[in-house]
Design brief:
With 353 residues, this protein is α/β, with parallel strands linked by helices. It folds into 2 domains: 2-189, no CATH class; 213-342, Roll (Diaminopimelate Epimerase, Chain A, domain 1). 41% of the residues lie in helices and 17% in strands. It has 13 helices and 12 strands. Helix 11 packs across helix 12 (314-335). The chain is globular, with a radius of gyration of 20 Å.
C-alpha cells in the first residue's frame, strides 16, 4: 500500500471531488467525516482535469485518476497508478493513499481509521461497498439477493430530470450514509421510490437484452454475451448484468455502445465487460481490468472493467469496433491458459502495457 499518513502539516481541506457512483459516495462520506467537509463535486474518470472542478491543495480526490494539484488522492485502480507513474509521479510521494483494494472506500477507511473514530456501522458500509464495486459475488443467488447497498447503488443507475437534481441527490446520500447504516438509508422514501423506478427500468432492459444478446464470432464456447447497441439512435442505458439471467451459463457480458455528448450520438465507442457472479472472482484466472489496461483503453477490477475509444468517422467506428471485439476475445481466451495467468505478474498489468 502506498500512502502518506494524516498529519498536522497537511492543509485544511474544503472540498471533495469524487466519482459519481456508490463507491465514490461512500469515499466522500468517510473523508468528509474525517475532515469536516461539506462541499462535494462529482465527475467521471475522463473529466478529472476539468478546470471547473477547482481542484487544488485544499481538495481531496477520491476514486478517480490522479490530479497533480490535489491535496489528497485516494484510489484503487491499477491503471490509474500506472498512469501516475508514466507521468513522472513517485508512488512513494503520494499525498493520500493508493492500494489495490476491492473498493476505494476501503482505501479511505484504512487511511483514516487510525486517527478517526468512525461509527461502527461504517465498517459494514465499506464491506458491502467492497462487494458491489468489485462485483465479487459467490454465485448468481448471492448477486440476486437484495441488500441495502444494492438498493442505493441501483438508484444511481437510474435517470434524473437534470444534472442538478442528480448532484443534489448524491450530496444527500453522502450526508445520510455517514450518519446511518445502509439499511436505514435504503428505507428512506426517496431512496425507495428511486429503487422502484430503477427496477421498472430493469424489467424493460431484460426484454431488450434477450432481443439483442448474442455471442462473439469465434466464441465457440459461448462464454461472453455480447450486447451491441451501436446501431440504436438513443442510448438505451443498459443494465448489462441482467444478461446473466437470460444467459446463465455465460462467464461474462460485454457491452459495446456509442458514446453520447449532450444527448447527441458520436462515433466514439464505450466498452464494458463484467464477469458472471457465478464465477468466484478472486479464485478465477479471469481479470477484466487487466484486459482493459492491456488494450490501453480503460481500467477496472478483476470482475469488471470499462474503456472508451475515439473514432474520427462512422467507417472508422465500425472497423474499430470489430477489431476491439476480437482483441477482447483473444485476451479473454489467453487468460484461460496457465501461461497467460502466471505471466501477468504481481502488478496485474498486461504484457502490452
Amino acid at each position: 500500500m502506498t500512502e502518506t499518513k494524516p498529519g498536522s502539516d497537511q492543509p485544511a481541506f474544503s472540498r471533495i471531488v469524487t466519482h459519481d457512483d456508490l463507491d465514490g459516495v461512500v469515499c466522500a462520506a468517510l473523508a468528509s467525516l474525517a475532515k469536516g467537509i461539506e462541499v462535494f463535486l462529482f465527475t467521471g474518470p475522463g473529466s478529472i482535469l476539468d478546470t471547473g472542478l477547482g481542484i487544488g491543495p485544499h481538495t481531496i480526490v477520491c476514486d478517480l485518476p490522479h490530479h497533480p494539484e490535489a491535496g489528497l488522492w485516494f484510489d484503487h485502480h491499477a491503471g490509474n497508478l500506472e498512469d501516475y507513474r508514466l507521468k513522472g509521479g513517485d508512488p512513494a510521494a503520494i499525498r493520500g493513499a493508493f492500494s489495490p483494494e476491492k473498493s476505494c472506500a476501503r482505501v479511505v477507511y484504512n487511511y483514516f481509521a487510525g486517527s478517526v473514530s468512525f461509527p461502527d456501522f461504517l465498517l459494514d458500509t465499506v464491506e458491502e461497498t467492497d462487494v458491489i464495486d468489485s462485483f465479487d459475488y459467490r454465485d448468481i443467488q448471492e448477486w440476486q439477493r437484495e441488500t441495502p447497498g444494492k438498493a442505493i447503488a441501483d438508484t444511481l443507475r437510474g435517470t434524473f430530470p437534470s444534472f442538478r437534481e442528480r448532484t443534489a441527490y448524491l450530496r444527500h446520500l453522502i450526508r445520510r450514509i455517514r450518519a446511518a447504516p445502509l439499511s436505514e438509508v435504503a428505507g428512506e422514501p426517496e431512496v425507495r421510490q428511486r429503487t422502484a423506478a430503477y427496477r421498472e427500468t430493469a424489467e424493460k432492459n431484460r426484454v431488450l437484452i434477450e432481443r439483442i444478446g448474442t455471442f462473439l464470432p469465434g466464441d465457440a464456447a459461448r462464454e461472453i454475451v455480447l450486447l451491441d447497441t451501436t446501431g440504436m439512435k438513443h442510448d438505451p442505458a443498459l443494465i448489462k448484468s441482467l444478461a446473466f439471467l437470460s444467459f446463465p451459463e455465460a462467464e461474462a457480458v460485454l457491452e459495446v455502445r456509442s458514446l453520447f455528448r449532450q444527448k447527441r450520438k458520436t462515433n466514439d465507442l464505450g466498452f464494458s465487460l463484467s464477469l458472471s457472479p457465478r464465477l468466484e472472482v478472486q479464485a478465477s484466472s479471469r481479470d477484466v481490468g487487466d484486459i482493459m489496461r492491456t488494450l490501453n483503453i480503460g481500467d477496472g477490477h478483476r470482475g469488471a472493467g470499462a474503456g472508451r475509444v475515439s473514432c474520427a468517422s462512422k467507417a472508422a467506428m465500425l472497423k474499430t469496433k470489430d477489431e476491439m471485439l476480437q482483441r477482447i476475445l483473444t485476451l479473454w481466451q489467453g487468460q484461460s491458459r496457465p501461461s497467460a495467468v502466471s505471466g501477468s505478474g504481481s502488478s496485474g498489468r498486461g504484457a502490452a502495457d
